[in-house]
């Protein structure tokens, strides 16, 4: 739909100009005061908006009366049909414009949030610098491992007969998780660790229970969890020669509660790798891997490993759907989302789902579902297959 110009057209009369501006004022985002300014410039007069508004309505009404008197019944129906079609186009244009403005506002908020976080990082570095004193150990091994960190749901508060979870409990469980990660890396002489941050690290606001059971707003949640991840990765990197961090976005951090209206990349967890890159820029043995499309294929093994969150890939069908989507058959698919510890072979692919840090909440209890708070770690052999599977249980930490 072409937008009409603001200025008068060649050989356009006063009446035609006024009718054109008045009929398109919404599309042009004009008020009657602005129309009066344009018309006064056209006439070289200084009338108020009231004059032009009244004259527009009189002209419009006169045209309608003239058309009805001169037109036959069939012509009237044709005119009415065209009027309805024009009105539909106007509504469509307004909907498109509203959606476009919403996108612009969202981008502006996102960019503003990034600017504020960057300022916060610079201030934080002054009062809370991350120490870097890594000295690579001499080792003949080439042992690789991964640890799955997912479904922290930071900001959520849960108090039920089977589980207690809040920001204080999160801190205790997360500290234990980081300590165990370092412990097992030392025990197995791990030279390269992949931290699969598999999404839903914040509670977000996508569900009613999420909004009721959270103690902080979404922006505060993403800022806090980004900093805690940076601190944890920095600590792990002091004990492991190479650390790779894979960031997968989950569904709880999407910017729109309704999943049908959401766009994959409009997700607060896309801020996490950006934050980590800024905060850990001096850590030469840390690599931050972005995955804005909801998956990551690790091709550094003989047979590829795939990391996903799990909201877009069901645990029972992902082994069949991913080869069609990616064109490869992976040895392992690592995923979160369902909060359950499962391992199942599907032909050549083993699908491994992680537990959660938060444990069972009100939603789970209402569905009569339960699982311990836990996370997983794997030690790989030289061929890239899992040699040791390690469960890090966190349920008793409250």
Please give a structural write-up.
By secondary structure, the chain is α/β, with parallel strands linked by helices. Helices cover 42% and strands 16% of the residues. It has ten helices and 13 strands. It has a six-stranded mixed β-sheet, with helices on one face. It has a five-stranded mixed β-sheet with strand order 7-8-9-11-10, with helices on one face. α1 runs antiparallel to α2, α1 (14-23) crosses α3 (49-70) and α4 runs parallel beside α8. The chain starts with 13 loop residues before the first helix and ends in a 5-residue tail after the last strand.
- The chain-level mean pLDDT equals 84
Main beta sheet: strand number and arrangement?
A: 6 strands, mixed
Shape: elongated
Query: Helices and strands, in N-to-C order?
Result: HHHHEEEHEHHEHEEEHEEEHEE
Our estimate of the beta-strand percent is: 15-25%
Q: Separation of termini?
A: 60 Å
> Can you tell me the residue ranges where pLDDT is under 50 for at least 5 consecutive residues?
208-213
* Total beta strands: 13
Oligomer: single chain
Report helical residue fraction. 40-55%
What is the tally of helical segments? 10
The structural class is alpha/beta
Radius of gyration: 30 Å
* Widest sheet: strand ordering: 6-5-4-1-12-13
